Give the backbone structure.
Amino acid sequence: MKKRILYTVISVFVLFLAGCEYDNYDPPTSILSGNVHYNNVPVGVRSGGTQLELWQYDWDSRGIIARAKIVVNIDQNGFYSSRLYDGDYKLVRLKGGPWADQTDSIDVKVSGNTTVDVPVTPFYVITNPTFTLSGNEITSTCNITKVGMADITSLTLYVGVTNIVDANNNGKQFVTLRESDLTDLSSVKTIKLTLDIDKLVKDHPAWTRNHIYVRLGVLSNGSTERYYTPVQKIMLH
Amino acid sequence: MKNIVKTLFILILFFYFTGCGDKWLDDPVSTTIILPNQVWNDEVMVVGLLCNYYDRLPVNYNLLNYARMAELDEACHSDNNYMDLKTYSWDSWSLWEYSLIRDINLAIEGVATSTVFTDKLKEEYTAEFRFLRAYVYFEMVKRMGGVPIITKQLIYDYSGDPSYLAYARNTEAQVYDFIASECDEIKDQLGNETTKDRANKYAALALKCRAMLYAGSIAKYNNLLPVPITTPGEEVGIPASRSAGYYQAAVDAAKEIINDGQYSLYRKHSNPQQNFYDAFTQTVNNSDFILQISYNMTKRQSFPYYNIIKSVREDNLEGSKINPSLNLVEAFEYLDGSPGIMKGVGDGTEAGQANWIFYDEIDDIFDNKDPRLYGTVVYPGNMLKGKDTQIQAGVYEWDGTKYVRYESKQFGSLHTDGKLLTGLGGPMRTEKEVSNNGFYIKKWIDETPFSSARATGSNVKWPLFRYGEVLLNAGEAAFELGGAENIAFALECFNDIRDRAGMPDLDETTLTFDKIVNERRIELAFEDHRLWDMKRWRLAHVIWNGVATNPDATLYALYGYRIVDAEHPERDGKYVYDKFPAPNFIAPRFFQLGNYYSEISQSVLDNNPKIVKNPFH
């Protein structure tokens, strides 16, 4: 009887040692990251709105290009990152961002942590954004430069209570300059917004009332996405 | 021993002579397997197949799968499932239905081998199969853009190289052209003159009319976008030059239906309100319906069980699922043709009370609305099954300086004055299975006793094509073509619809694109047209742009309250209304450019390297 128990224990132990692991290969460790930029200035976009796609080249060493893409989201500051296996990839600027459609792919070799910046050509860019608060009025100035081939549609100042701000997130208070106010792009554009604190409180009950976040976005008819400036925090007191 | 040998010998001889021949191997009569030649030589079997294929036609929503009615801006869903959509995923509405296409192709080839059917019968069956195939291709092209047109069975030869079975996508225009030519070829071959449950000549013409209108408007409105949605191979996107031809084809197909006079709008009741309600619930020999999904004594549907207003329901469970939004209610114009915006409503705040109009009766706010509203939506004061629906959100009581709001989570609860506080029909802000926006659906919910009880069910039918839509299609296509003759024809079509509805006629100046958009929205509400219409007009991403302040992207509620006011007796007992975003509604509707053509699934791309992806995916 005792022997039997001993054999059972030994055989279970042997099986335990010999059994394969739950995962039989390691997870990817290399991080590919970078900025989507124009002239080395990151391009601000809508959170969750724009994507890059990665295609692993020769992934099974039989010369077959993988037909499933790896989706890479771009964050609102134009930064992207993806955890990958080492290897050769093609990076594609997926149609739909606030920039001219660019069908050429970028060859990327991932080996350890790799940084690859992705150049794009926005239709319009905003430079020198400023935001000043006096009383309840925010005054913002900026320059707009035409880069790509598209007509300008609008320039909008967005206000939010969390640091993710754009047309679809958090942007319940905003002021828009229309096409007619934007005919002459050589001059500094000024946009003013009067904060409705009561409405902010109503829309966001958990808001601390200490600060707000602001951002400018320019829309052209080349895309339904806007080029955004970096989000800026403004203290209310 | 000798005896045994002798006996064995005799036995063997006996079996040798009595055993059956080997012919039985050739002629099996299986009790479990039906062979192809049995199917293609038996009318009952072929009709059985047809039933199966009709049943498998792709659906966005209908009376059995109604939840998507709440996906856009027509309604809210009281279970909230369809209200938390922050965006529509790229594969929303995606469809790649080649298993049905294959089965239909197999049937077409099979019927041709029949040795029993007459040539006429073969032709009729083949035409009906081809109608179903064209219908499936239309369902695919309106969701995916161009898809491979496969008109025969694809059979693998086991050679190890299946690449000859890989077909590239046809262009979007080619698929629409295919649908048109199929309908033209089969329309005079189809039988079924006496039934609305199977396709006849007019169903084929109605399919062609709808498809041609879609193609024409995609050709026109896609190219009006600043950046048209196209692929280099034109798998999506139709050249603008083709729009006029498509519109003309839509007009011609519709004229054939109209001129033959087989169908007409339902006009059996003299009261236009009741008439429009009857037009969808009195569906025995309804002259409006061209092709329908039929329900009868033995096959019932349970749409009323799931959607009837709680205060009138005949079962002890379910009800109140689909709740039409105020957006839809306001789309119904006033009788004088002015926009249907609700008058004299507050916004739920104290300041908003200044806007109130004090109505004598709870339904006075809906006076002079388009009579079709009565047949489409249960609004406060609208009866159903002869019973009061009791839709009242609560009470506003004067406290000396302002009105204070009282609401209850209890159905039929009473206020301190002993009169009704919150009605048996809600609305309520947070509860399930009760409207949270103040309205209930009335279209499709019939007044037959116990049609909303599980054990009984309803036999109201679902139109796949109806004459009213043909008129709207024809009118729109003619309007787009322009020219005095076409405009006159368009006015004829729209005014037939408006006259039946009890609305004033349109003329050359009042017939506009926006009017057409609105007319289709209300006449065809809850008939699965809104999404496809907004897509082909390329309006979806504008109307539903995901911006929180956009009133079109937000679904609104309208709550009615009774006034309790001892200080102002002229106001006491009257009714006021508040309008605000529906309490359960969280994220504004957000339709992105990538939603115009749904995503082709990865498995399809993996299996066929010739398939190109849709834009933005």
Observations:
- Chain B touches chain A at residues 87, 226-227, 541, 545-549, 588, 590, 592-594, 602, 605-606, 609, 615-617 (CB under 8 Å).
